[in-house]
Amino acid sequence: MPESRGLPEIAVIDLGAAGFDRLALMAPEKVARLAAAGRALVTGPVQAAMDWRSRGWLARNVTPYAVEIAAIAGMPGISGVYALNLSTEWACSSMVNGGRLMRVLDWPLNGLGDELTVTRHQSPHGAWWQATWPGFVGVLTGLAPGRFAAAYNQPPIRRTSGVKPVDWVLERIRVHRRRAIPPTHLLRQVFEKAADFDEALALLAGTPLSIPALFSLTGVDGRSMVVERLEERVRLRPGPVAISNHWPEPGQAGDWPRGYPRGVDSPGRFRDACALAAELDGLPGDFAWLRYPILNKYSRLAVMADCVAGSLAVLGLEQAGESALPATRTLRLNGLKAGT
Predict the structure, then answer these.
(1) How many other C-beta atoms are found inside a 10 Å radius of the C-beta of residue 238?
(2) CB 88 within 8 A of CB 298
(3) Which domain of life is it from (predicted)?
(4) How many separate domains does the chain show?
(5) What is the CATH number of the domain that holds 303?
(6) Cα maximum dimension of the chain
(7) pTM of the model
């Protein structure tokens, strides 16, 4: 991984107890650039259709963050906010062991690496930090020093008919019929409400979801877990453990659905992530471990978080040919504590 010196620094914003819409209002130009990148990816008419459908679904949903999304969507000159917030096509590789979490987020939306922001939040159980983007109100990767660290991964598309485009549509229909909370909104609630690893795990494992999800969780006592979720069901895999974007064990006799892996070489990313997870405590505090296929052309974010030491390292990435290169300097926050 080339050096990131000389590149832009990642902004660190203290939001305290404010909603995530505050970040968007502070950086409207970043929200506008991400919205434009979304239009470039899917075209304006498709983005508008996704936004309309997402807005209608959110009006029936139980998420407590709808007001924040509406506030961002109401900003002058901004479009596609509902689609951005309810799109869960994120491919990722995550690994947890002994209080440490390492993850790479992949998504073909150009500009995510450039617009990356780290925010600090205050909860009744202390401060917590996340890597995010202005305009997004869910949580994908977070660190609560002295409590836990956690990340969200997108699961595979459920295999129903055997024809992937048809099954993608069927998955959207299932989501549209449900009112349960989106996975990235649930992860935000975990950081806001859970006092420790046990409470975080109970919420991730037991809360009904609008769509399947994969969560990685590690705590200060050294325990770690991957939580594989269907809408109403759960499978747990204790650490040291890793996950990418397929079901490592497809299940038997119909007890767990088959699925289409997402992202670049999900089995290869899982294989390499599992090897890294076993060595996590001994790995250096830099991103020298980033290599193909965990690092690929869609990689936009890399994070190392340690909830015991209270350290966070974040790197923004952008596509460079068939791989990705740093788009930011590496941000390092050390000695973070729940009360600071």
Answers:
(1) 10
(2) no
(3) Bacteria
(4) 1
(5) 3.60.60.10
(6) 55
(7) 0.94
